[in-house]
Amino acid sequence: MIRYQLFMKLFDANKDGGISRDEFAAAVKRIKPNRISEAQLRKLFKQADNDNSGTLSSKELKGCLSKHDAKLNTKKVDDWIKKHDKNLDGKLNYEEFIEFMLDVL
């Protein structure tokens, strides 16, 4: 299911549930050859999830980003969490984390 969601996020630009030839061509141009894989994202999520809760708190996400030399201010990270926290629990589960990573990559 996650792969399908990632695929649709990348390709279905107008969110109509289908992928036109133009949408496909535009998405292929955007894809970078060094794009992070789903396995790498899962590994990154597990490494950041210090308490093994299955979610990332603001503190865990900031720690993960700082380990990877991402120089972001606290407010920016908190804003990103609010933007991607679909279930409004103040944390990012794996699917929300994927959305976050697609947004920032």
From TrEMBL:
Q: Which Pfam families does this one have? A: EF-hand_1, EF-hand_7
Q: Which GO terms describe its cellular component?
A: cytoplasm
Q: Keywords in UniProt for this one?
A: Calcium, Cytoplasm, Metal-binding, Repeat
Name by which UniProt lists this protein: EF-hand domain-containing protein
Q: What PANTHER family does UniProt report for this protein, alphabetically?
A: GH27120P (PTHR46212:SF3), PEFLIN (PTHR46212)
What molecular function terms (GO) are annotated for this protein?
Answer: calcium ion binding; calcium-dependent protein binding
Compartments annotated for it: namely: Cytoplasm
Q: Where are the transmembrane segments?
A: none
Note the InterPro entries from the entry. Answer: EF-hand-dom_pair, EF_Hand_1_Ca_BS, EF_hand_dom, Peflin/Sorcin_CaBP
Q: Gene3D superfamilies, alphabetically?
A: EF-hand (1.10.238.10)
User: What organism is the protein native to?
Assistant: Opisthorchis felineus
Q: Does the keyword Cytoplasm apply?
A: yes
